[in-house]
TrEMBL record:
<feature type="domain" description="Major facilitator superfamily (MFS) profile">
    <location>
        <begin position="9"/>
        <end position="393"/>
    </location>
</feature>
<keyword id="KW-1003">Cell membrane</keyword>
<feature type="transmembrane region" description="Helical">
    <location>
        <begin position="213"/>
        <end position="231"/>
    </location>
</feature>
<dbReference type="InterPro" id="IPR036259">
    <property type="entry name" value="MFS_trans_sf"/>
</dbReference>
<feature type="transmembrane region" description="Helical">
    <location>
        <begin position="161"/>
        <end position="183"/>
    </location>
</feature>
<keyword id="KW-0812">Transmembrane</keyword>
<feature type="transmembrane region" description="Helical">
    <location>
        <begin position="100"/>
        <end position="121"/>
    </location>
</feature>
<comment type="similarity">
    <text>Belongs to the major facilitator superfamily. Bcr/CmlA family.</text>
</comment>
<dbReference type="GO" id="GO:1990961">
    <property type="term" value="P:xenobiotic detoxification by transmembrane export across the plasma membrane"/>
</dbReference>
<keyword id="KW-0472">Membrane</keyword>
<keyword id="KW-1133">Transmembrane helix</keyword>
<feature type="transmembrane region" description="Helical">
    <location>
        <begin position="341"/>
        <end position="362"/>
    </location>
</feature>
<dbReference type="InterPro" id="IPR011701">
    <property type="entry name" value="MFS"/>
</dbReference>
<dbReference type="GO" id="GO:0005886">
    <property type="term" value="C:plasma membrane"/>
</dbReference>
<feature type="transmembrane region" description="Helical">
    <location>
        <begin position="308"/>
        <end position="329"/>
    </location>
</feature>
<feature type="transmembrane region" description="Helical">
    <location>
        <begin position="45"/>
        <end position="64"/>
    </location>
</feature>
<dbReference type="GO" id="GO:0042910">
    <property type="term" value="F:xenobiotic transmembrane transporter activity"/>
</dbReference>
């Protein structure tokens, strides 16, 4: 593989992975306008976000076996086609109920990009390079929160919130063209893989019986769900509590995205000296500590807008380290069932994210505490799962103790 081919493949896989982040982030500045236009409230609009998360969680379980059975590209075309139609449906909806339904269908189609990208990483790159490739993908993904809310804010003001979904439809057309002409096929179709429910569930159970997958998929999934708590709560916190405009919210979101972007570069350096396990372990301890300080400080009234932004920035710094390393550790044991493993890992993450975002909406009380409280819960919960899982892995491998932290 030449350097140019390597770059093109990473770029396409990155854009496939950004379909859902763009779908989530771009319409956040439009929440007040959507609520006003559809005669509802922001906390009701938040349920369209929750529906999207649930759609991703369910859809990934479907696409995993399909990607293993039919190869990578045919399910990609089908899923992206559904996403395209649902995006147009979102643009022309006239009720919050229909928006929630269209967002669910949009997620069921768009999540194929996330599963296919992770499976293709396992197909196209050697195991020793998987963590670095995931870091590059996360780098591309991390750019989307810097662009999407800002574009969404200006598009909402200039053309109305409906235009956001038409923009997403146009982006999807470009991605389909790139996939068709420039993306390698990856692992070929495997007719021996059955799509009967019993066989599909058997593949998932094969993945779940691997302690390394269980530990890092669950710990990484819960800890990364903290970003979903932030995404679900931030429109209300910043635009209602602190009264920032749609454009200002977009710039705030872009600023905090830097916190996720910067550690991805650091991860390349850390991986030369430390293991994936050590990085995940230490980062979760760091995030848990920052989260507890953030919760106590908010409860005590220490933070205004600037102080809260600073604490959120410090917390989100850990996301760029936990995500790619826990993903790599989850996928390492698998080859033949890489599609099912990727689907199950992604479904767990989005399932956690959907649950967390729903809790943030239900706990709405006009303060920032529901958002930051759930963020902290996710980090601490992920750390506890990791500590228990490390002992299970060490016991199975015959080691006396799990690998030390940094």
């Amino acid at each position: 593989m030449t350097r140019k081919q390597h770059f093109v493949i990473i770029l396409i896989l990155g854009t496939l992975s950004t379909i859902s982040p763009f779908s989530i982030d771009m319409y956040l500045p439009g929440f007040p306008a959507i609520a006003n236009d559809l005669n509802t409230t922001i906390d009701k609009v938040q349920f369209s976000l929750t529906a999207y998360f649930f759609g991703i969680a369910a859809g990934q379980l479907l696409y995993g076996p399909l990607l293993d059975r039919f190869g990578r590209k045919m399910p990609l075309y089908a899923g992206l086609g559904l996403y395209l139609l649902a995006s147009v449906g979102c643009a022309f909806t006239h009720s919050i109920e229909m928006l929630v339904l269209m967002r669910l269908l949009q997620a069921l189609g768009g999540c194929v990009g996330m599963v296919a990208a992770q499976a293709l990483v396992r197909d196209l790159f050697p195991v020793s390079n998987i963590a670095q490739v995931f870091s590059l993908l996360t780098l591309v993904i991390a750019v989307s929160p810097m662009i999407a809310p800002t574009v969404g804010g200006y598009a909402t003001v200039a053309f109305g919130w409906h235009s956001i979904f038409l923009i997403l439809a146009g982006i999807t057309v470009l991605i389909l063209v790139a996939v068709y002409y420039a993306l390698p096929n990856g692992r070929p179709a495997d007719p021996s893989i059955s799509l009967r429910p019993q066989a599909v569930l058997g593949n998932f159970f094969t993945v779940l019986r691997q302690p390394q997958f269980m530990t890092y998929a669950f710990a990484g999934g819960l800890s990364t769900a903290s970003s979903f708590a932030y995404i679900a709560g931030s429109p209300d916190v910043f635009m209602n509590l602190y009264h920032v405009s749609e454009q200002q919210y977009g710039w705030i979101f872009a600023f905090l995205a830097i916190a996720v972007l910067a550690p991805n570069q650091l991860n390349h350096v850390l991986l030369k000296r430390f293991s994936n396990e050590q990085i995940v372990h230490t980062t979760l301890i760091y995030q848990s500590a920052v989260g507890l300080i953030m919760v106590f400080g908010s409860w005590a009234g220490w933070f205004g807008l600037t102080g809260l932004l600073g604490m959120l920035f410090l917390f989100l710094l850990g996301q760029g380290l936990v995500g790619p390393n826990s993903s790599a550790l989850s996928m390492m044991p698998f080859a033949r069932h890489a599609g099912s493993a990727a689907a199950l890992m992604g479904s767990l993450r989005m399932g956690f994210g959907a649950l967390v975002s729903a809790i943030v909406s239900l706990m709405h009380n006009g303060t920032a505490l529901p958002m930051i409280g759930m963020m902290t819960f996710c980090a601490v919960g992920g750390l506890l799962i990791l500590l228990i899982g490390e002992r299970a892995i060490a016991h199975r491998s015959g080691s006396v103790t799990p690998k030390a932290a940094l």
